[in-house]
Amino acid sequence: MTDARNHDLARRMAELARTAASPKTVEEVLSDVTATAKELIPGVDTAGVLLVGKNGKYESLAGITDLPHQLDDYQMKYDEGPCVQAAIDDVIVRTEDFRTEGRWPKYAPAAVELGVLSGLSVKLYTADRTAGALNLFAFKPHAFDAEDETTATVLAAHAAAAILASRQGEQLQSALSTRDRIGQAKGIIMERYDVDDVRAFEMLRRLSQDSNTRLADIAQRVIDTRSGNDSRDGG
């Protein structure tokens, strides 16, 4: 990479790191990443992020225009394409010219029909349950080179870090919510059956095992019965 381009990349990554530290949604962080890709990589006409879950569900995010979302729809429809391949299998997938591309016989003509002639997709290292790729597209052939791959790889790492941080936050919130529900349910059982904390939890655990139901769901049912009793008492 040239010195000027190295400097630009370092500057923009520092800016992205600062904005990621402020309260932002994953979509907003990824939008910053795709906008930065267009700013730093000369050949980029549009960009987006594709996430693919193990259940086959996919999310098309942070498109600079609507075009990346259309391309993602085609890839999931045909079950082929550079973004899917980068997300699930390869680390970097570069397409020089979709007009002569033989790897994706259904997707490539669809991309050409939309005016896209070349592309660069880079894997996002997210989580076991989800694969992802940062996807860059151009309206001319041979738009990307090895230098562009390096820049895109750095940006993809930032995008992946944002996704993982968000998921960890969601998991923490879920764990706290579960803990609160179990605590509330224990309090209801202690009051209703005049038992101590240990016995109340044991009753919840036994109900969970006997009914093959998650402990958090059993706790919610106990809370719901309390709410029902309260409404009847008030009526």
From TrEMBL:
Name of this chain's protein: ANTAR domain-containing protein
Residue span(s) of domain ANTAR: 162-223
Gene source species: Mycolicibacterium tusciae
Domain of life: Bacteria
Transcription listed as a keyword: yes
One Pfam family hit: ANTAR
Signal peptide boundaries: none
SMART domains found in the cross-reference section: ANTAR, GAF
